[in-house]
Amino acid sequence: MNSINRRDFGIAVVATMLLPVGTARAEDSAVPLAVHIDNFVFEPAQLTVKVGQTVTWTNRDDIPHTVVCAGKFRSKTMDTDGTFTFTFTAPGDYKYFCSLHPHMTGAVKVE
Amino acid sequence: MSDHDHHEDGVSRRRVLECMTWAGTGVLWTITGGVPHSLGIVDSALAAEPAGMTFLQISDSHVGFDKPANPNAIGTLEEAINKINAMPKKPSFMIHTGDITHLSKVKEFDDADRIISQAKLDVHYVPGEHDIIDEEVKLYKERYGRGTKGGGWYSFDAGGVHFVGLVNVANLKGGGLGSLGDDQLEWLEDDLKGKSKSTPVVLFAHIPLWTVYPQWGWGTEDGARALEYVKGFGSVTVLNGHIHQVMQKVEGNVTFHTARSTAFPQPAPGTAPSPGPMKVEDAKLRSLLGVASINFKQGDQRLAIIDTPLQG
Fold first, then answer.
1. What residue segments make up the domains of chain B, in order of their start?
2. Domain ranges of chain A
3. B152: DSSP letter
4. Is A4 on the interface with B (CB under 8 A)?
5. What is the CATH topology of the domain spanning A2-110?
């Protein structure tokens, strides 16, 4: 529970700090900015966010995973309950995968 | 036979193996003319002193794993080594088909070395994906990569058999499977060039070189190219780990075999939501963990593989 609380807190803090005041609308905070890994699957596998928003990945499997987007970001190995956060500063389609289990793929669309 | 038929074939044979091991035995397989024959249960097979060279395969020791599927992966590795030490005939050497550690930590490598060295055998390793996840990706290479090429591949000869250790867990691409890569495949082609076709060849790597179940990533995308290079050799044996269960198929002169883990079992393809660790009753765990013993008798063109569970 601690890690989840910390994560939610972190998202709130980062979102507050990074979003320009003018675009920080209320509905933005309702966007799911968390991706969970359960049973070797990224959920949600497709996520749409706005520039400046931060996404947190949490590994809930008993096996380590990573989150790798070629040339953009690469997490450390996340053991059980491990997390990785990345703030998207440029629009685009970010396809990522787990470098240990490359059949695990996901994408973040940044608008 | 289509791939599908092979797959069905492998699963049903594995189920037979499992049933037998649950009954307190293992099965000795011998391969003659491309057709596997069961010669009998492990106990009677072991009683007959094996002639020729015997080597062992252990795999997926995952030292550092402490989750419910097996809170004591170090303990079950120790049990496996004790089992090896109790074998009536000392094997020539051992291969470890990867995932020595769970998280590539120094202490995990140290613990693995301390336990595996108690078998007092030469050990030939290949890395699993769990062995190359330290920050600088250097611990595996430092310990086991001396004298190897590229990401850790190499070959050696023993008892008239040519052994090739391959690495198919590095530089994986999104959406793909295990991968050998062009550099390694070129090296392999070169390594096999000039070898007499009557030389028995053993290829070993962590992820199966054949496609077991791509939905779970259980296969090697360019494995077929490696198998192309061993076409024409009279006897080829491919030994893998990664899937934490015994599976075997025979295609022409090639025998494919995967070993049990010494740490935790994984489900049969498609029988669970994911390939993650499978929690079984404590009493059943040791019947699903184990080691493999492989016997090669010169002139026989056949390698006999005995899978022995930690506990029958």
1. 3-23+40-298+305-309
2. 2-110
3. T
4. no
5. Immunoglobulin-like (2.60.40)
Residue B37 has pLDDT above 70, yes or no: no
pLDDT, residue B16, reads 39
- Is the confidence metric ipTM above 0.90 for this complex? no
Residues of B in contact with A100 (CB under 8 A): 129-130, 133, 172
Indicate the pLDDT class of residue B303, thresholds 50, 70 and 90: confident
Cβ atoms of B11 and B269 within 8 Å: the answer is yes
Cα Rg of chain A (Å, integer) = 14
A102 closest CB neighbour out of B133, B176, B273: B176
B116 vs B127: CA distance, rounded Å: 15
Report the pLDDT value the prediction gives residue B297, as an integer from 0 to 100: 78
Which residue did the predictor score with more confidence, B194 or B34? B194
Give A63-100 as a DSSP string: S-B--EETTTEEPPPB-TT-EEEEE--S-EEEEEE-SS
Residues of chain A with pLDDT under 50: 1-4, 7, 9-27
Whether the per-residue pLDDT at B293 is higher than 60: the answer is yes
Q: Which CATH superfamily is domain B3-23+40-298+305-309 in?
A: Metallo-dependent phosphatases (3.60.21.10)
Residue in A62, A64, A103 nearest the CB of B103: A64
| C-alpha of B178 from chain center | 15
